[in-house]
């Protein structure tokens, strides 16, 4: 079927029921005005609606067909009974007429009840009991308030029977509508029609009750019969509407308030029945029998409902216990269960010669497998790894658990020494390292292993032993992965120090503990300052100065480096702006700021750079962003897109520590780099080491051929500086020129550097001379400018 034809069919399926409702409304209006039912026209209309919905329902799906057939039978029966009714004569209802009305009631209850149970996803038995409780409770109330008084007044049994039935049915319909309404279907057109049908049905029932007790005249009967038909037609229209299928297909767990509303309706029904039975005394043996029988049935249903609730609670408890203690994917114990097993092993081996060991396995680079093969392929790998680890562990009687997404743990009670533990850990690592077939592609996976043994002659808890194995696993990861690390006390000390640094880092910027120092970059040929590199220093509140090598890795791992890096960028540019405005440095002076891999991976990093340039009013070409090759290799596409966006602003990019990695040359081709910084490791040996000198010469020649700016880092001696100039390097920085200095000392530093540029420091060396450290006079107030012996160098930290 073409899309146009399908749209046309769908449109007619929506329009036809509404057209039928319009016709019914006209017939109803004419009937009320004339006081008579236009029987032929009414019957034809209802038959067409019923048959049309039945055909439509059968064409949609089986559930729709059930509702359609039930409602069609109900409406046809109503039409036949209406044809036998003599509206002009006030007479008791006949059995065919009662059956017609009952068919409508059954159809309405069936349509709403079945759809409610399906929508809420409630178990059939439980929901049936709940419906029965509401029905019996409201029936008892109806019997006490209406049916028995009617019988006492001499009404016929048939009329009393009808009055006993329709009010409980109305309560059921209202309960179904409340359930569906509270289940998020207030805007569903089909459910709006069902709710309208319930209201009309309740009005019809009320009118029929008034007619039965003689409160209204013959028009009351007319209204009752006609309103029942209208209620049935509204349900038919709801079934025919396209949104009806949605509420059947979209089966979601019932919210808590729906269950509470249902329990409230049950409670009101039971309480009303019990209260009326107790307050109003019985009248005769029949009344006693009906009350006792109905009350006993109600109590039985309530007990059954409680039994079902207890059974469901027990099933849920067992299911929860199973999920908590058994991993769904691998079938291995979970972490919760594993802690219990470890506790049992520790207790059973107390005072024995064995030292139980926990072995923690964490798969290396598992995210790459998940990204490559998807969730299903990754689950296959995990299942196979679990099988292999369990098989290998069984060889020495150990128990395996899956304690995380790609983490497994083993408790080995057979070890008596560290050597035993390491041998068993290597067995597990080797089992994982064998190739695994995912589809038709074999993949290789490695694992980092942490080992923690129970201390000799010392008690330890299961959680503490697992924590130690986790610490050892982290050490194995940081040492290069795919290896075994055994826990020792120094690891725990390192973890404690790391936690201290991590806690102290939070709010360090707000407490103004972070400071920027700036190391000048000079032009080798002239000795003039061309720019600065901003370096972070952290002075904690107790006065302790933390090395960048200590706190920067922690900031990287926790993500706080993004906040620190954004602050450093703004502060460095603000200080450069101030120096330029105050005439401390020329307007062409640049500022270099180091950025981390986490910053490059941040989608907002380009916006952060743009904002920093905007608020400081520093021209974009004066900003250099320095980065290492590792950040560009981890996420090459993201890095390339981010860097090209930044480069489009006019910001210049530098590749730091050039020559120390494996991919530096390819990065120059793939990324928009304008500067390479020669690593200090090569500069240190340029004067004595022929290989270092040859390598630096090659780097300089490469940079010159590509039109790149060249900066040598870590220059500490005159000989190194002169060798760099002889090889053609453009710029240099290092302790020979200046230590990193704080911003307030920049004025005196620039004065000292201006005097330094006039000395023989920047003149060509005499052939054959050895390296000489030439004393350089340092003017007062020059800060940390001047010669320095070889030693620790102020390194870039972000």
Description:
With 798 residues, the chain is an alpha/beta fold. It folds into 3 domains: 3-122 and 154-253, no CATH class; 335-487, Alpha-Beta Plaits (2-Layer Sandwich); 513-762, EAL domain (TIM Barrel), CATH 3.20.20. The chain is built from 27 helices and 17 strands. The strands form 3 sheets. The chain has an 8-stranded mixed β-barrel with strand order 8-9-11-12-13-14-15-16, surrounded by 4 helices. It has a 5-stranded mixed β-sheet with strand order 2-3-1-6-7, sandwiched between helices. Strands 4-5 form a two-stranded antiparallel ribbon. Helix 5 packs antiparallel against helix 11. The protein starts with a helix and ends in a 42-residue tail after the last helix. Residues 83-91, 215-221 and 765-798 have low confidence and may be disordered. Residues 498-754 form the EAL domain. InterPro entries: Biofilm_reg_signaling, EAL_dom, EAL_sf, GGDEF_dom, Nucleotide_cyclase, Rev_trsase/Diguanyl_cyclase.
Widest sheet: strand order? 8-9-11-12-13-14-15-16
The biggest sheet, with number of strands, parallel, antiparallel or mixed sense and barrel status, is:
8 strands, mixed, barrel
Using the coordinates above, name the CATH class of the largest domain: Alpha Beta
CATH architecture of the largest domain: Alpha-Beta Barrel
Shape: elongated
Measure the end-to-end span: 63 Å
Strand content: 5-15%
Number of domains: 3
Q: pLDDT below 50 for ≥5 consecutive residues: which ranges?
A: 83-91, 215-221, 765-798
Could you name the CATH topology of the largest domain? Answer: TIM Barrel
Helix and strand content put the structural class at alpha/beta
Q: Considering DSSP H and I runs of 4 or more, what fraction of the residues is helical?
A: 55-70%
Domain GGDEF: 354-489
Protein name: Diguanylate cyclase (GGDEF)-like protein
Domain EAL: 498-754
InterPro entries: Biofilm_reg_signaling, EAL_dom, EAL_sf, GGDEF_dom, Nucleotide_cyclase, Rev_trsase/Diguanyl_cyclase
